[in-house]
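Q: What residues go here?
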């Protein structure tokens, strides 16, 4: 736990700086999750939300904040926490049941030895993640059906979404991110990402504050995804040099202008006709684009060619 979280209050009887910061962080997490839930109508009256827990900081935080939201939400919904024990060597199987029992959340632990299947099928030294994820996905969908869950909640956050966007651009040639809400590939479930607006650094701080019993994610021995790590480092470097850039990039995902991209499937460029009517908001093709000097994006410079 970082020292910043264990400083005593500055004045006896008055909340200290750390308490105030923690309170602000909690409010921000609740506000951002509430906003995402509302914007995408992620949770509705009578839903049973299956929270997928891996034992990492993100899924712990998702469950933690969702439980707070449950108390104050305008709709009634149930939560069931689910962990898939994939039988990785050294997986501390007691940690999640103990934690979930302690906080009093209904939960289900699904035991499936996908580790052995993956080890058996994938040659030594090759990455196991795609088969492992496919197996995990299928199992979680089945469990969601068995538990009567109407929504499956995953703990991906804003930075995961942006990393995926860049990975798809760099290596997949697609402008495609990771949606806050989607229909599962088997067509039977709605998957939601209630942390879609939350920055990873806030989850790191929240996990430290709440002292979640984190289970390391290296137990399977698979190579870490190097490309994702590189993209994550690139984004963090941009954010360090230009604070607010990640937030702006996420906003861009919510403000797509198909007429100003180049995908003929999403905009009828071939059928484009002059309207003959001037428009104040029309495109000024010969002028350089203008950008507000936003304090959220200091240092933003657009060079016109
Ligand atoms: S890191 Fe390990 S547990 Fe995670 S998807 Fe890859 S193989 Fe599976």
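A:
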């Amino acid at each position: 736990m970082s020292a910043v979280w264990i400083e005593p209050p500055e004045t006896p009887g008055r909340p200290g700086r750390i308490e105030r910061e923690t309170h602000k962080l909690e409010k921000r997490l609740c506000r951002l999750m509430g906003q995402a839930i509302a914007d995408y109508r992620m949770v509705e009256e009578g839903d049973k939300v299956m929270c997928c827990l891996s034992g990492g900081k993100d899924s712990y935080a998702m469950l933690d904040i969702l439980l707070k939201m449950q108390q104050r939400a305008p709709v009634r919904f149930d939560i069931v926490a689910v962990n898939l024990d994939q039988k990785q060597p050294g997986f501390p199987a007691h940690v999640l049941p103990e934690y979930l029992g302690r906080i009093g959340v209904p939960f289900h632990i699904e035991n499936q030895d996908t580790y052995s299947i993956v080890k058996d099928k994938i040659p030594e030294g090759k990455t196991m993640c795609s088969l492992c994820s496919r197996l995990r996905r299928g199992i979680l969908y089945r469990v969601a059906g068995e538990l009567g869950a109407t929504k499956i909640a995953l703990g991906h956050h804003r930075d995961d979404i942006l990393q995926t966007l860049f990975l798809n651009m760099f290596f997949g040639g697609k402008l495609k991110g990771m949606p806050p809400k989607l229909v599962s590939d088997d067509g039977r479930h709605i998957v939601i990402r209630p942390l879609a607006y939350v920055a990873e650094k806030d989850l790191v701080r929240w996990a430290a504050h709440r002292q979640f019993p984190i289970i390391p994610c290296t137990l399977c021995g698979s190579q870490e995804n190097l490309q994702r790590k590189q993209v994550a480092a690139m984004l963090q470097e941009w954010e360090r040099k230009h604070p607010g850039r990640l937030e702006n990039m996420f906003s861009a995902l919510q403000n797509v202008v198909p007429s100003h991209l180049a995908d003929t499937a999403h905009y009828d460029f071939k059928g484009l006709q002059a309207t003959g009517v001037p428009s104040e908001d029309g495109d000024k093709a010969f002028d350089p684009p203008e950008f507000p000097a936003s304090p959220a994006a200091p240092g933003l410079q657009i060079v016109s060619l």
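A: Context that may help when evaluating the design: The beta strands are 48-52, 78-85, 107-111, 151-153, 181-183, 190-192. Residues 128-129, 132-133, 220, 222 surround iron/sulfur cluster (CB under 6 Å).
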